Q: What sequence folds into this?
């Protein structure tokens, strides 16, 4: 009987170790947002919708980018994307935190000329409403240097 209890305890501890190991590799959810950047091109105003998030590199290698699932405030996935972590540096060093970003949508001045001002404004407002629902990003992968 005692041998059976010892075997049961060993099996229980081994399985508990597997569960804890699986949790150590769970993805990381971080706040993120979509910023609207206005600029000019040769034909008029450009509106760029840029995903931005901060990521802490807890790996043993420098990171150049991340893959993310973008979620709304309710936690529903609304989009997926990658983001580059090289806009303000050459990547995120081991143990550091840095910004990752990706232009999700660009509406150009040329588009305004072809569809007209009112339609162009509606496009910007529709994209703003859709993309600014982003509340958090689940980092599901990284790109190393």
A:
């Amino acid at each position: 009987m005692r041998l059976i209890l010892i075997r049961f305890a060993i099996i229980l501890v081994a399985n508990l170790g597997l569960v804890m190991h699986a949790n150590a590799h769970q993805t990381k959810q971080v706040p993120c947002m979509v910023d609207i950047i206005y600029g000019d091109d040769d034909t008029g105003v450009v509106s760029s919708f840029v995903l931005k998030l901060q990521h802490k590199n807890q790996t043993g290698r420098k990171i150049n980018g991340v893959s993310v699932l973008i979620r709304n405030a309710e936690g529903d996935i609304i989009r997926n994307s990658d983001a580059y972590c090289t806009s303000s540096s050459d990547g995120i060093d081991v143990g550091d935190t840095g910004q990752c970003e990706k232009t999700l949508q660009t509406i150009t001045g040329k588009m305004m000329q072809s569809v007209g001002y009112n339609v162009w404004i509606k496009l910007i407002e529709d994209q703003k409403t859709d993309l600014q629902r982003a509340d958090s990003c689940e980092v599901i992968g990284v790109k190393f240097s």
The first strand starts at residue 28 and ends at 41. Confidence is low (pLDDT under 50) at residues 17-26. Strands lie at 28-41, 44-56, 63-71, 77-84, 97-107, 136-144.
